[in-house]
TrEMBL record, chains A, B, C, D:
Keyword 4Fe-4S attributed: no
SUPFAM superfamilies: Aquaporin-like
Top-level taxonomy: Bacteria, Bacillati, Actinomycetota, Actinomycetes, Micrococcales
Protein family: Belongs to the MIP/aquaporin (TC 1.A.8) family.
Protein name stated in the entry: Aquaporin Z
Gene Ontology terms, MF aspect: channel activity
Length: 261, 261, 261, 261
């Protein structure tokens, strides 16, 4: 059987336009939209699962246990890395995008676009949940646990995100050795962080995952914890990665940027 | 030690018949039966696990928790992809077969055979469960959760299947990079979809998985939700894949069709 | 830094004895003991985990949930395949050894030794548990669930083992494609079989895993179910593998026999 | 896009110093600090998760089930092996370091530094937990279960660690075949040991994981069990590995020492 239309990804525009430099510009622009779409769709999936598990739990009278709630988003990130990590790097998290940039694996010029795409994806997910279920379960918001207080929640978010970004940077830089199992390490870390620490701070580790439900439920009181904590933890992990691995590697840049040309 | 009888898969008929073209026709026919058997046996296993967990849970007075029920079918699909993905592509789901065809990774001419084999496998699984346990636990049927309603269940099936088929198409197209870990991504996605969303719609994502128990218990009232939702979600995912990856790839065709010649 | 003593596995006796043929005989004999030890130690670990989870659950007043009990042995088999699959093939189960032989991936002449080693390992595990905890929790015996009856338990063991041996034979024959992820498929299958079906028959799928606790607790009434069921299921899976893959492959023989020369 | 500063890890000092031998010494010293930092940070993460799950469980009124408590540290070790296994070998455990040395995969001269780094990391983790939560949940200490007694706890730690170190040594020696899936085997083993046996001894398998909380809570009564048991189990596993695999391999040395030059 023949598939005459099957070929490797290559925008057809390239062959239609005689002017090479213009084609290249168009090409880059098409790829940029691809990356934006990937980050938005991937972050939508992450937030709809992470926040949605709380919402569905509330809607169903407690059918979703804490263990189920925290494992599901980790597996979602694993799947997203597998199905579109080569498109955008599958950051899905401003703390990750900024850490990759600070680590010099990712160009600062692309950071604003990624943050916008992630925010759009996260807000779309929270909007979907509110349209489906109202503000049940606080729309899956992350808040400091009972008796924990803002400061301890902040410290926990810093620690958890330091571990997460250490895992992400460390597996990215070693891509030659670790290969696609990096998705297992990253997804597994997200799951385990919730397994042991969710009752303290919600184990968000991601400003957009926390901001989107807070915005849609109209309570931004504790959102700052989940912006400051993950960003700070990410920067500490960048420092640790420097100690552990030295200068950034090409493998890390490839993992952070995807493989689109 | 010698194994004179050990060799690579190669139907012996090939050597018995002098007429090459006839042999090739017979060969293709034998491979077609292999694919049919693979889809039927694989779908049997998926449905017997997914529906059976509910049935066994009812039979044992609740020994199977929701978490156990939803993780088991995901692991079953992972195992099936590993043990016979190279034979038939291990679709196990009409929504997947149609999405592969719409994505031009799979020939439309083989679609009817796959749908028949999947339906036969699913009905055999539901028949097995009924013979063993009667119609306990509604034979593992998927239905909208209490207080959910048909429309919200439909929307949830659309969303969940969009994510599933995104994962399947995206890992198939990147087979060169992802290798056999695609089975982990797909199996993991099926598990996580149930972990966060099963109380809403049952997280079927598969017309045959829902139709077979409904047929055997004699209640097809809500079956349409699980036909329309997954098929619609699958088509949305085909569109998303076009945005993310552009034209279909040879790797995707290989993953969708298996490796039999 | 130098490791003058580090080299690839190669019995030193080989260099001490001038007579080549005698050396080779000794070499083969040493490797045979290695395989025996591997099967005994691996089966010990499998049975001590599978039966031990019930015993520890009874000893601790129910601290081990059904989900924990059935997932642990699956992960144990995964780890054993990884750490010594290349030594003996890591069968750990007479139903697997006989299926590999019937599939012509494994020489019949080695079958008796494997069955003895597996039985010794299983009895050692049950003896360890009895010495530590008495016959608490029926020593982890598998028995038909309440209200199930022998026949339905037997049918369930046949079905579950057909799936297990399909997974084992199918991933072994495709070793070139699946690589070491076969351990995930097999370990995952063992876990999922328990997740959905343990209340019916205990999801043993392994004559030694059931015989050893029955022997040590002195009740062999239902042991036959767990001998007949797994052996029958294994043979069905051999037939299925013939349909799916045709003649046995070298990759399958390598997986079944390990890589020792 | 160009990354003029991106290159493979290579301390820049090398180019600044004209004296080759001095450079090499400095280089080795820098790499030694990297290994120390890796072992300290990795052991911190392991202990903060393993002990922290108990502490958070106590702080949150029991929100963390036993299954969650024991799976989280296994996944943490998996992630650590992936993100920095190539730096230090990711031992995280004196029983592992001593077993690698006894197996001749790791130089005895580096053992003291590793033990110090692991101890520092473990104490830092216990200190963090005490600063955050006081001595709630006994700071996550491992102790013999109710009605178990010291001797049975000791025997269980010996058995569990024999399995753990068998898994570690066996997957390290077979690195050519198993590749980076060794992290799944080791992390999976740690999780399963807790799943079936945690109520007996806590399933520590690691002197530092037990010593650090005992030190910080001021009760070293049963610490000896978790020093003697794991060390003894590790040595038995070294003997088993000799039987299974014969002489140590270069692959094992590479896995044990990391890939820094």
């Amino acid at each position: 059987m023949e598939f005459p239309h099957v070929q490797r990804p290559d925008p057809t525009v390239h062959q239609r336009v005689p002017d090479g430099s213009a084609t290249f510009g168009f090409l880059k622009s098409a790829q940029a939209w691809r990356r934006m779409f990937a980050e938005a769709w991937g972050t939508f999936l992450l937030v709809v699962v992470a926040a949605g598990a709380d919402v569905v739990g509330a809607q169903s009278g407690g059918a979703i246990s804490l263990g189920m709630k925290v494992v599901a988003p980790g597996m979602m990130v694993m799947a997203v890395i597998y199905f579109m990590g080569t498109v955008s790097g599958a950051h899905l998290n401003p703390a990750v995008t900024l850490a990759f940039a600070a680590r010099r694996n990712f160009p600062w010029s692309r950071v604003p676009g990624y943050l916008v795409a992630q925010t759009v994806g996260g807000i779309a997910a929270a909007s979907f949940l509110r349209a489906m279920f109202g503000t049940l379960g606080l729309l899956g918001a992350t808040t400091p646990g009972a008796g924990v207080g803002d400061l301890r929640a902040l410290v926990m978010e810093v620690l958890l995100t330091t571990g997460l970004v250490s895992t992400i940077l460390g597996t990215a830089s070693g891509a030659r050795n670790i290969g696609s199992n990096a998705a297992l390490a990253v997804g597994g870390y997200i799951a385990l962080a919730g397994l042991w620490a969710a009752p303290i701070s919600g184990a968000s580790m991601n400003p957009v995952r926390s901001f989107a439900p807070d915005l849609l439920r109209g309570d931004l009181t504790t959102t700052w914890i989940y912006v400051v904590g993950p960003l700070l933890g990410g920067m500490i992990a960048v420092g640790f990665e420097w100690i552990l691995k030295g200068k950034p590697t090409e493998a890390g840049a490839l993992a952070a940027q995807g493989e689109l040309k």
